[in-house]
Amino acid sequence: MDILLQLLLSGIALGMIYAVIAFGYQSTFATSGTLNFGQGDALMLGAMAGLSLSGSIMGGPYVNYWLMVPLVLLIGAFQGVVVEFIGVRPAIKTKSEFGWIMSTIALGIIFRNTAENLWGRDDLPFPSPLPTEPLHIFGANVLPMELLVVGGAILMMVLVELFNRRTIYGKAVVATASDRDAAGLMGINTGLVITFSYALSSMSAAFAGVLIAPITLTGASMGAVLGLKAFAVAIIGGLTSGMGVIVGGLLLGIAETTTGFYISTGYKDVPGLVLLLLVLAIKPSGLFGKKAIKKV
Amino acid sequence: MLQVKDLKAAYGQVQVLHGISLSVPKGQVVTLIGSNGAGKSTTMRALSGMLKPTAGTVMLGGQSITGLPAHRITRRGLAHSPEGRRVFPAQTVRDNLLLGAFTRLTIGSSRARGDIEGDMDRSLDLFPRLRERQHQLAGTLSGGEQQMLAMARALMLNPEVLLLDEPSMGLAPILVEEVFQIIGRLKAQGMTMLLVEQFAAAALAVADYGYVLENGHIAVHGPAEQLRNDPKVRDAYLGSAH
């Protein structure tokens, strides 16, 4: 029983990371119908930038973990703007349906190669800002960092939701997502809203990067698998549903930790991917999604 | 206020407007009538920037707005209540109205802020049905209510010119009458309007001047009174249907 609880809690922490990255996929899909397939590399860049700022690899530490986070968010946002400007805007302008797919993948690979040259190919440890002694919760061992992951992920989503509901700029983002032409008639610069959604998307990936780095290892290739799994989460939950990515993330996270323990770590990715195949076969718009998948 | 000269527009290779010239003087209501497919909505879309014209000029208040993107035209004070209403269904009636005032609420836009709450109140007075439903999601409104919301939202810009595209489309006859009464009230307040309508008789009754559009050309134009009595216009547009 204690073991199950342990697995559930670890699964939740992992699942929330997937949810944060998947949230990034949603944010650009909503406004522009496009996705940043370099999302995993945005996560990696966030983690590596965070390590450079608050670790010792680049002659630091320059700032502590808590001051590093907002700086990494800014770097992430800037990276998102670059991706939108170079990879996506031309495709939207020429109404190319698939151009952005290859260009976002290409940019992701360029970022990864650059990271390999800057920071090397080895995985590096990321100093934990919280005690590494596990806490005992109902007999299960929980790392304080795992609690921070869950808390940080929830905080980010709540802040974005408040922004969308309470501020005129957030309302403009929601309006652009629901009807781009009509939003233009309101005087909203919808091109700028799309750029913003890319900034937000990469920012959330970078945030996921600095949240997860202290409990895993940091390296140029860390983003590839996370980005892909988060994409599965976005498909499972539905590309249009905020609730969907949280539920999808938790399902995949818990499926991985329990399979890893009860069956074999070698198979830990299988149940989540089987779930993905089932969802695609039975409800292709995702568990919570509306008919949106045709746009992909 | 709005001067259009030799406007041409196309969807891909298909030329829809073949050089339209029209003028909407300040404080007047001008109507554009014509059968389905004549290019009425295309004209509106080309004026508000939803569609980029291929030739011609559009002047608003003496300044050219030709070919500008929609959001920049809106900032110059041209409001467009588009065909098909296009309200934001997942947002409340109130949020839809606030979005209409987007350029007055944000920094860096050229519209003066003015009295947003007061304008919101006046809009809701003009459309009492919306007041009852102001906290409801726009997607839950009936077609008629959505049409009123689209008009109220356009008014929230505090526009120099208001484009109304088929405000009566798909509405029950009693609501059509209500919409035309509201247009009459806006006219009395001095609002400059360009009205596209299929109910040509009702449109010519409220308008000062009219243009008849046929296959992307202006076929006839003149004071509304004169068009109402023009035998050709009567036969084609004001016939037995009205």
List the helices and strands and how they pair.
The complex is a heterodimer of chains A (296) and B (242).
Chain A: H1 2-32, H2 39-54, H3 65-93, H4 99-119, E1 135-137, E2 140-142, H5 144-166, H6 168-178, H7 180-185, H8 190-212, H9 222-237, H10 242-262, H11 270-282
Antiparallel strand pairs in A: 1-2
Chain B: E1 2-11, E2 14-24, E3 29-33, H1 40-48, E4 55-60, E5 63-64, H2 70-75, E6 78-81, H3 93-100, H4 102-105, H5 116-126, H6 128-132, H7 143-155, E7 161-165, H8 173-188, E8 193-197, H9 200-206, E9 209-214, E10 217-223, H10 224-229, H11 231-237
Parallel strand pairs in B: 3-8, 3-9, 6-7, 7-8
Antiparallel strand pairs in B: 1-2, 1-4, 4-5, 9-10
Helix pairs in contact in B: 3-7
Can you summarize this structure?
The complex is a heterodimer of chains A (296) and B (242). By secondary structure, chain A is an all-alpha fold. Chain A is built from eleven helices and two strands, in the order ααααββααααααα.
Rg calculated over all Cα atoms of chain A: 19 Å
DSSP helix count of chain A?
11
* Radius of gyration of chain B over all CA atoms, rounded: 17 Å
The SS-based structural class of chain A is mainly alpha
Main-sheet strand order of chain A equals 1-2
Assign an overall shape of chain A: globular
Shape of chain B: globular
Distance from N terminus to C terminus of chain B (CA atoms, Å) equals 32 Å
Beta-strand portion of chain B reads: 25-35%
Largest interface (C-beta under 8 Å):
A-B, 19 and 30 residues
- Helix content percent band of chain B: 25-40%
Features:
A: 296 residues, two-stranded antiparallel sheet, B: 242 residues, alpha/beta, 6-stranded mixed sheet, 4-stranded antiparallel sheet, 11 helices, 38% helix, globular
